[in-house]
Amino acid sequence: MFSDFDLKVILSSLPYLFGTGMVFTLTLTALAASGGIVIGTLLALMRLSGIAVLAWPAKAYVNVMRSLPLVLVIFWFYFLVPYMGQWLTGASAPISVGAFTSALVTFTLFEAAYFSEIMRAGIQAIPKGQTAAAQAIGLNYRQTMATVVLPQAFRNMLPLLLTQTIVLFQDTSLVYVISLTDFLGAASKVAQRDGRLVEMYLFAAVIYLLICIVASTLVRRLQRRIAIIR
Amino acid sequence: MNYNWNWGVFFDPSPEGVGTYADMLLSGLLWTLATALCSWIIAFALGSIIGVMRTLPSKLANAIGTGYVELFRNIPLLVQMFLWYSVVPEILPQAWGDWLKQLPNASFYTAVVCLGFFTASRVAEQVRTGIETLARGQRMAGTALGLTTAQTYRYVLLPNAYRIILPPLTSEFLNNMKNTSVALTIGLLELTARARSMQEFSSQVFEAFTAATVIYLLISLVVVTLSGLLERRVAVPGSR
Q1: Locate the ABC transmembrane type-1 domain: which residues (chain A) (predicted)?
Q2: Which of A10, A217, B112, B240 has the fewest CB atoms within 10 Å, counting from its CB?
Q3: Which residues pair with B13 in a beta bridge?
């Protein structure tokens, strides 16, 4: 069954797979994770602010995003981002943005919903006494959050944030539906061109498997190291 | 925004010749539901077995369970979809591969199997957590009563564990339903694919996607409501 397994097609396409595909995947993952964590934290703060006009939209946003398939959201933003650009820049027609920008906006905003749930749990897990103490020594809301609550919440939630980033790393393969060349897209293009589906898809699967297993092992190790003994 | 809204488009005839765009979306919804339900049956059954294996005393069962979960959780769903669709028929014996390839609705069966195996790894983690959350005394009590390991699981551990994990299982069910949209890459004409082709044919982008969005939100709402009812129905009287 593996008699005509062709290793050469994998070897000769390595520079393309990693130089183009994997670089794209990792860039998208890193940028979307950073943006997603920032926006997610803001959403979490809005939800916990106790101010209905802030809490309600944040809650609605998170719940809607989490009920929709990522593929549908990718399509939504693929068509919506040009209009958003037009609205933001005041241009007269929908502006054309690159597919990469569109994917980046999609993943940042989509993952923000998931990161916000993690940050919300992290902020809620900080004992109320800490906020009270911060207020008692005269810190305002911004200072309380920035110097007391959020640093601890980030530290406690770091393993979960990283695990979610691994999920994001796997999910970026879905940019396939808007024909972008991420790692899987690159493998798929070579596979179609050379008619070597078996080799290329198996190779892609092995690489994803290795990266994710190594990454989640590192996250587990980090979790043990940073755990605060209470 | 200079976009021409036309909400009447749903009642225009679709380019398929029969029915309107609304019918097209409806047929997509039915494929989404069929795929989600069929794959859930596999995911629930297989996931329960794998989850139980990870809590058994046997080292071998543990290793198999852990291996399964690691394998299926660490490969992106889309890659798994391609593996089942393009690679499995190739590496099977010739006759089986040919049979698979000319199966009608091949993308449906592939999606069901792929999602079933994929979601099983997530269900397995929930089942294992559920069993591990139970007090140790429950397993011991089962043994003390003279139940075999299988009987302890059947009559003591699993009935309790399933009740505990009902809420996370509901969200796994919803994730599985959302994941059916990935099968559009192998040609399954489910809801997202239908919305996408409606957008291509009618160029009413936002109407098509709004309709799909509303349908997905409604499914979530219905599933969460039903799961709440189920939870109350199966609750052990007196607990909590």
Answers
A1: 22-219
A2: B240
A3: B20
